[in-house]
Amino acid sequence: TGSALPGFPSNGTLETENGRDFHFLGEARFLTSLPGIYRICYCRPQADDPTKEADSCKGPSSYKAAVGLMTVNGPLQTTTTCALGSACEVTIQGIDLAAGDAIMIVDGPCGEGGGLEALGFPDLETSVTLQSGDSGYLANLGNIPTAASPGVYTICWCPVANASDCRARRQFRATAGELHVTCPPGYYGVGPTTGRRCGPCTRGFHCAGGEVNVATRIACGPDQTTRTSGA
């Protein structure tokens, strides 16, 4: 009675040629599902009955026999917000994570997204190793450059067990969440809808900062002003 799950190759359908070893249908090789414990259900095609063959094992409701459980390891998705010019640390939680696992911040989907050096993040062009923390595993991203491009970026994960593969950006296929780089207090969003930047608040206005697309400046009240810009 369950549903096919996104992130599993061929919607989670496996087949066997020897009655013992099962593999996912199709050419997809990688799991991109959320981590968790999933039930494995079984269906035997009615090959001996031509009238039933077309309908057998075609949907989740046909898989009625529970044969086991499958644990998918990996990070739970989280959102981390860091302002330009501030120190930034990402906390990662999940199933069977380990110190020494690595994350990489990319512009776009994991396994496909581009690097961040051209966007003003030269120190985030390479991966960052996770360290043990009190509430999960920590990745210290250092200080976010004040001249970097604010926006939403993807946090991608690679396990230490595959350390030999965790070098190229394309090897970081599992999504661990999003990094929101925002305008700090005293700044507001300026420029066109795409490619907006954070500009200092002008005199006579107050700017609380925040997401670049909504960070605005608010005029001071009657007979009020700010002494300097950047307030």
Supply the key terms:
231 residues, mainly beta, Immunoglobulin-like, 5-stranded mixed sheet, 3-stranded antiparallel sheet, 1 helix, 18 strands, 2% helix, elongated
Structural class: mainly beta
Question: Whole-number average pLDDT?
Answer: 86
- What pattern of helices and strands is seen along the backbone? EEEHEEEEEEEEEEEEEEE
Total helical elements: 1
Task: Report the span from N to C terminus.
Answer: 58 Å
What is the beta-strand fraction?
Answer: 35-45%
Number of domains: 3
Biggest sheet features: 5 strands, mixed
* CATH C-level name of the largest domain: Mainly Beta
Second-tier CATH architecture of the largest domain: Sandwich
Percentage of residues assigned to helices: under 10%
Describe what you observe in this structure.
This protein is mainly beta and 231 residues long. It has 3 domains: 9-72, no CATH class; 75-182, Immunoglobulin-like, CATH 2.60.40; 183-231. It is built from 1 helix and 18 strands. It has one helix at 50-53, and strands spanning 14-16, 22-24, 36-42, 65-72, 74-75, 78-83, 87-92, 94-95, 102-106, 128-129, 131-133, 136-143, 151-158, 174-182, 187-190, 197-200, 205-207, 217-219. The strands form 7 sheets. It has a 5-stranded mixed sheet with strand order 6-14-13-9-10, with no helix packed on it. The protein has a 3-stranded antiparallel sheet with strand order 7-12-11, with no helix packed on it. Strand 11 (131-133) and strand 12 form a beta hairpin. The longest helix has 4 residues, at 50-53. It is elongated, with a radius of gyration of 24 Å. 24% of the residues are buried.
